[in-house]
Amino acid sequence: MNKIRKGDQVIVTTGRDKGKRGTVVQRVDDERIVVEGVNVAKKHVKPNPMKGTTGGVVDKTMPIHQSNVAIYNAATGKADRVGIKLQDDGKKLRVFKSSGAEIKA
Length: 105
Known about the structure:
10 strands; mainly beta; two-stranded antiparallel ribbon
C-alpha cells in the first residue's frame, strides 16, 4: 500500500524546492511521484510537424523521489508522517502519525 497517493497534498522536505507545497499529479513508479509546481526543469523540445508541436524551451515538471516529500496535515498546517491502521473488517486505513486522524484523499 502506497502511503502517498495521487491527489494528496504534500510538502517538499529536502532539495532545492524545500518548503513548497503541491498536489501529487502522478505516480511514475513505486518510488517516484510528480508533484505539481515542484522540480520544474527547462526542456528543449524539437518541432514535430506531424504532431503539430512547435519547438522551443518548455517548462516540464519532473518526478521527485517520494522520500523527499511528506504529506500535508491541514489540521496542524505542517508536514506529517503516514501510518497504516487495520480496521475490524480487514481494510487498511491511512492515518496521520501525530493525531491518528484518517487521511481524506
